[in-house]
Design brief:
Elements: H1 3-32, H2 35-38, H3 56-68, H4 76-80, H5 85-96
């Protein structure tokens, strides 16, 4: 591989890494909106549901149920409609990855 190709490949890798980091940061921003009720990083105070360490698929199902109206709620049905299904999956994965 010639030097120019090496620099182009390195640049592409750096761009991909920056894009991946930006996506992680975006998911953290979305998850931060949940902190008022579910605590920082999903570790809630007594009386509220903690999300940290929960099963991702169960969290996704709950979020989809809120979004569709299958699960009654005071505010979650409204909040969940503000996200795409893919975004809700990313939020669920974020909380599932947090330590309890």
């Amino acid at each position: 591989m010639n030097p120019t190709m090496k620099w182009l490949a390195a640049g592409a890798l750096c761009t991909a890494a920056l894009a991946a980091q930006a996506q992680v940061n975006q998911v953290r921003v979305w998850a931060a909106a949940c902190a008022n009720c579910h605590g920082t990083d999903g570790r809630a105070q007594t009386g509220m549901e903690s999300l940290a360490g929960k099963d991702k698929d169960e969290l996704v199902q709950k979020l989809m149920d809120f979004k569709s109206g299958r699960k009654p709620a005071t505010i979650m049905h409204q909040l969940s409609k503000g996200y795409t299904d893919e975004q809700l999956g990313q939020i669920a994965a974020y909380f599932a990855a947090q330590k309890k």
